[in-house]
Protein 1
Amino acid sequence: MKKSFLELKEYLDDQVLIYNNIQFIESDPIQIPHRFQQKNDIEIAAFITATISWGNRKSIIKSAVHILDLLDNSPYDFVKNFNENDTKLWQKSIHRTFNANDLRFFCISLQKIYSEHNSLENLFLSQENETNLFPAISRFREQFLNIEHEKRTEKHVSNPKKNSASKRINMFLRWMIRKDENGVDFGLWQNIPMSKLSCPLDVHSGNIARELNLLQRKQNDRKAVEELDENLRKFDKNDPVKYDYALFGNGVNLK
C-alpha cells in the first residue's frame, strides 16, 4: 500500500534513528577515518577510503587498513613528505582495480593540494546559485587531475559531467560536511551547507528508493540522484542526506 507523505516521512525518520548511531561505524568503511583525531588525517583517510568503496564492505575495510599501513598510519604526514620513489608503494594490487600507481598519484596530487590549501574543503566550495555539489565535484576533479597521470587513474575520480552518480565522492562529502549529535558523520567542514549534499546512490539505496516511490528513474546516475534529492528535500530541506541511512541501511539488510 502506498504511504502518504506524512506516513513516509515518519517511516524514514524512524529508520534514520535505527541506523544513524555509533553502532553503524563498526561495520562501515567510515570506521577508517574515525581512527584519527587530526583534521587532515581524517580528510585523507576518508577520501582514500571513499575512493575504494565499491564491492563488499569487509573487503573495502580490509583494503583501507592495508593502505593506511602503507601510509605509516599517518596519512597527512606521509602525504606531506611523500617521495614518489618510495618503494613501499610499488606493489601491484591494492583494491581491485585501484593499484599502486593510482595510490602514488593520489599522494602526489594530495601533496600539491595541501601545499596550496589548508583543507580539501576549499576545493569543494559551492557557488550561491548551485543547488547541489555536482558542479563543485567537477571543479575538484579538474584540479585533482591537473598534473601528469595515467589515463586509467581518472576512473577513480567521479565525473558528474558524464552523468556519474558520484556515489563515492558524495559519501565522502556526507562524512565531511554533515553534522549532528550522533557521532557518525564528522561535520568537519563549516563552509558548505548540508542542504546541498546529495545521497550517495548505489544499488541498495536505489532499490529501496524505488520501492518507496522516491525514485522513478531506472539508472543509478546523476539524473537519478537529482530526482532523489528533490524528493528527500521535501522531508528535510536542511539535512536531506540523513535519509541515506534509511535507504542504505534497509537496502543492505534486505540483500
Note: The two ends are 22 Å apart (CA to CA).
Protein 2
Amino acid sequence: MFNTERTEIKVFEDILLRSDYFSVMKKCILSFTIIFLALAASAQELQPYQLYTQSGKKTTFRKMVKSLAERDVVLFGEYHDDAIAHWLQLELAKAVLERDSALVLGAEMFERNSQSYLDAYLVDSLNAEEFQDTVPSLWPNYRTDYAPLVNFAKDKGLPFIATNVPRYLASAVYRGGFEALDTLSEREMGFIPPLPIPYDPELPGYQAMLEMGGGHGGPNLPMAQAIKDAAMGWSIIQHLPENGTFIHFNGTYHSNNFEGIYWYLNEYQPGIEVGTIATTRQEELKNLVEENKGIADFILVVDEDMTRTY
C-alpha cells in the first residue's frame, strides 16, 4: 500500500512540474481576467449617471457627501422628473444624517402656507391620505418623488420645511412687480421675506429669463422667479440647525451658477457656507461637456435615456 501511495504522489508531482500544465493554467487565468474586465467595462458603460466636480473631474458619492456635510446649507438642484436625482436626494439625506445629528430638510415643492400641514403629518396628527388631500398646491408627482423624503424626515424625527412662496403671490408679482406685495394682509406677509425684497436684475440667470420667448414676459418675469428664490433663501435661514446642515431640494435653475437661492442666502446671511449640486443630462457620461462645467460644486449628469418619473 505504501509503495502505491508513493507512486501516485510521484505522478502528481510530475504533472505539476510539466510546463504545458502551467501554460494551460496561465491561459485560463488570463481568459478569466479578460472576461472579468470586459464585464466590468460593460457595466461602467451602462451606468445611468456620473458625478463631477465643478471643474469637470469625475468624483464619487462618498467624496461628495464628505464635502457637503461640512456646509451649513446644501442646495440640491433637480430636474423634477429625474428618477436618479430623487434617489440620490434620499441617499444624500441618509448619508449626511450618519455624519451629523442636526439635520433639517426643506423643499421648493411645498409652499410656506402648507407648513402647518407638514408639521401635523410629521407628528402623526394627519395620516398620509389626509395630508395629501389637504396640502395646498401639492405637486402631482408627490407620491413617487417627494413622499420618500418627507417620510424619511418623519421616521427620523427631522424637521421638514415648506420654503416656497405661495404660487398666487408669485403670480401677483408677475402681474404687478414687487409693488404687488405692498398690499398683502398681515397673514400673507408671513409667507414672504421682509420688504423690500433684495433684487439684482443683472444676474445672468434673471437676464436669461428676460430673453425667454423673445422678451414677451417683460421685466416682471424674473421678479416672479426672484420672489421664489428670496422666499426659499429666507425660509432656509430661519430654520438653520445649530452646528448642522440644511439640505434643500429645488429645481436646478434656482441654484445653478451660484445664483438664485444661493445669492439670496448670502444676502440674508453673509459668509454662510453653501454647497450646491446641479442636475443635467448628456448623451454620454465619459466627460462633462464644457457648458456644464462650473454650474455647481458638484454636477450630477444623468444619461438622457434614463427613465423619467412622469
Note: Residues 15-19, 24-28, 34-42 have pLDDT under 50 and may be disordered.
Protein 3
Amino acid sequence: MRPVSLTVLVLSLALTAALVSAQAATPLEFETGAGRLTIHPIGHGSLYFAFNDVTIHVDPYSRAGDYSVLPKADQIWITHDHGDHLDLRAIEAISTPETAIIADGVSAGKIDRPNVIALANGETIELGGVRLEAVPAYNLVRERSPGQKFHPEGMYNGYIATFGDFRVYIAGDTECFPEMKAFGPIDVAFIPINLPFTMSPEEAVGCIKVIAPKIVVPYHQGNSDPNVVADGLAGSGIEVIVLPLP
C-alpha cells in the first residue's frame, strides 16, 4: 500500500513540537482520501468511529461509557469474547435491526442478533466504504493458568481498518507478536498497555517501534501510565496521544 500524505486535524489536543502529546483526547479528527474520519475514545478498550455517514463502534463496554446516549451503530466490531469487549447489553443499546456486527468466531457464536459476521485472522470484508482486515491478537507469554494463555493464538482478532487511504490498527488484547512486522504503513494505532492481560507500557514501546505508526494511542490502560509510552517514544518521530488516566 502506498504511503499517505495527509493534513491531520486533531481536535482538543495540544501536540507538542517534540511529537509528544499533551493530555486530552476527544475526539480525534483526520482528513482521509475518502472523507473525514472522527475517532472517539470512550474508555477502556472502547471506541467509536464516524466516517462520512457511517458510525462504527468497537468493543462497546457498558462500564466505559453511557451507551444509551451514544450514536446508534451501522457496524460493531468485536475483538474477542471477554466481558469487557463482548458486552451484550452495550451492543443492544446501540444496535438497530440493520446493524452489522463483525466479530471473531468465538464472539460471533455468542451474539444472538441478525447480521453477525464471523471474521478469522487473515480474512477481510468491505462494508460501508471501509475495508476491515482481521489480524492476530494473542499472548506470547502471559497465562491465566499454566499452559493457558489469556488470549490464545489464532482465536481472537485485532483489526486493520482502511478508510480511503488512511489505515487504523486496533490491537485488541495482545502482546507484541512477529506478524506485526508485515502490517505495512499504519496511520493511527491503538495499543493496549494493561497488565497482566496484554503488555506493559515499556513492552508496548518496543512493539510500537516495530509497527511504526504515524500516531499511536495507548489504550486499554488499566492501572498503567500511558506517559511511560510517550517518554519511551520521545524523539522517535511517532506522535503519542495520551488519553486521560481512568
Note: The chain has one domain: 28-240.
Protein 4
Amino acid sequence: MNDFIRPLSDEFKKICFIKGEKNAYWPYSNSLVIGNCLIDTGAGSRALRKVKSSFSIEKVILSHWHEDHLGGNRIFKNAKFLAHVKDKPIIEDISKMGKYYDLENTQTGEDFEEITALLRLGNTRIDQTIKDNLIIDVGENLKLQVIFTPGHTAGHCSFLELNSKIGFVADYDLTKFPFYGGIDANLTDFINSIRKLKSLNMNIAVPSHKDVVMGTQEINNQLENFIIAIEKRSERILEHFSEKDPTNISDLIRKNLIYRKYRQNFEEIAERIMIEKHLEKFLDEKIIEPSGIKHLSYILT
C-alpha cells in the first residue's frame, strides 16, 4: 500500500501491518489494522493519519499502558477505546506512569514528564475493558481473540485473528531485550505468557518493535530465544550469590547485568527493577533465601 502500511496476507487483505516510525524503536512501536480496528497507536503521526484516511477505524485496542503504544490516541478521538482493566487506570491518568516506572520525586521522573509532553500524550478514556479469550467484533468476517499475557505489565494483552492465525504479540517483541522494568511487571507471568503465545501456533506474528515474523516454527523458535535471554540474565545475576556471603540489591546494581551500558538514568532504574523481579522469582522458587535481621540480603539455598 505504501512504505509503512502493508497487508499481511493475500487472503486476508483487511489485516495490515503498520510499521512504526524510526524502525519502531522507542518511543515508537508497530501497529496493526484488522477490519475496523487498530491495535496500538505508537506508529507515529504520519503513518496513523494515513491509517485514519485509508481505513474506517471504529475501535482502538491498546495492548498495555506504556507510552510508546499510546502516542497517536489523540488522532482517533471518535473511536471506541479498549484495554485490560488492570492497565485502564494508567491509560486514563498518565500522571501515574512515573509511579509505575518508580520515577517519582526524581530528576529522571521530571525528564520523563517532558518526554510525554513532547509525545503529546494525554489521558484516554477506556470505553470497554477486555479479558482473556474475549472475541472482539472487527467486521470483515474476522474474529479477533484477546490473549491475556501479563508480565510485561499487569494488564498486557496480545491478540490472535482466529481465521488467519495472525497474532499481535505486542511487547513480547522477539527482540534480544525482554523488558520488565515497571513495578507492575512479574517475571514468572512474563515467562508463562511467552509459553502461552507459543501454544497458539501462529502463522504470522506482529511484534511491537521488530519486523513481522512468518511461519509457526520460526515464531516459536524466536519466542523460545526470548525465554533463553531471560535465563541468561538469571545466570549472570546468580553468579553474584553464594551459600555463605550475603548479597543485596546494592551489590548488583550498576554492574550492567541486564543493560550492556546505560545511555540514560532511566535505564539504571529499569535495571534495578528488573533485577528485583529476578530476586522475587528466585525467592518463590527457593533458589535464594533471606539472610540477616532485616532480610535485605540473600544467600543461595
Note: Residues 240-300 form one domain.
